[in-house]
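go over this record:
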Amino acid sequence: MKYRVVPKTGDEISAIGFGCMRLASRLGRIDEKKAEEQIRYAIKQGVNYIDTAYPYHNGESERFLGKVFKDKALRDKVKIATKLPPWIVKKREDMDNLLNEQLKKLQLDSIDYYLVHSIMDQETWDRLKSLGVLEFLDNAKKKGQIKHIGFSAHCDIQAFKNIVDDYDWDMCQIQYNILDENNQAGTEGLKYASERDIAVFIMEPLRGGSLSNKVPKEVKKLWDTAKVKRNPAEWALKWIWNHEEVTCVLSGMNDDEHIRENINGANTTEPNSLSKEEIELIEKVRDKYKELTKIPCTGCAYCIPCPAGVNIPECFSKYNDKYMFGTMNAGMMYEMGMGGLTGGKPARASQCINCGKCEKHCPQHIEIRKELKKVSSEFDDFTGKALNWVGRRMMNRRTS
């Protein structure tokens, strides 16, 4: 395993970290046996950074990790990171209560890396400062409850720089991939933090899997022109590791083959190792993706649950699929999932009540209500209703 050093702590961190937002699941819950096997395998291969957060898996990710790392020998091999959820904090005491709850769930006396989670904008950061978040972090570190301090952000570059300058951070976490060079913190933020000896950890390296799953034929043709053959995920990850300012890439790994591939990529990639031709190819792929993508949703699901029952990520996924992959059955797939054909409750885009709650939580700052109207116009019109009727008749025939 390749390791990169956190400048202010001296910790050697594996080039790839195990993200616990999308653990192996079964029937809507963490498949604890499978997820533990995968984590143990990754650690055996040299992965030593485990990243979770308060809301992951509806609050169960931290609890699950607490069970796994009761094994002290295993615990000693890794650095565990979790995060303070700003959206729950209403007063100073909430910060202490949340940290104590997290320590209990994780069954830890001290958390290695503790981050202020998902700072969306300057307003959020100013509110947290007014509530005493910097004092809270200092006190928690003095008491030994946390060892090192960081933040994760989905804000614009100016707000990001302001946050960086407001505290003596050990590390930060940003969204960064071949499509996000100039979005949020972007390359400018990556360099800004690195120049101040703040380690930069990368989230959403594959844009929620959209850069590796169901690759559009136009993009596949471009990848196929490469002299060295790699799969799309490997290309996307190598591009990030190619940046010397990057400390660790976090991957939400839940598939055995993907775990092996990602670890192998981390083992074989050094900073500044991609050739000029390879970088030019990646830039062509980036431009093609931007040309094809209609809604920049990563599927993080921070926007749900929706008060009206809209499955926002899936609505956007089906809409993007139609335009990105040219799938003829996108309408039927939408009806099966969002129309309740398979037994679930309807979760259509047209159910949106325009409350705006979702937009306050979207890391991508998507105008969700506006985009849902486009999805509804595409799928919930007469054609959609016709597909729903046909689908129901087909389903009834199968069960009759």
About this structure: The two ends are 56 Å apart (CA to CA).
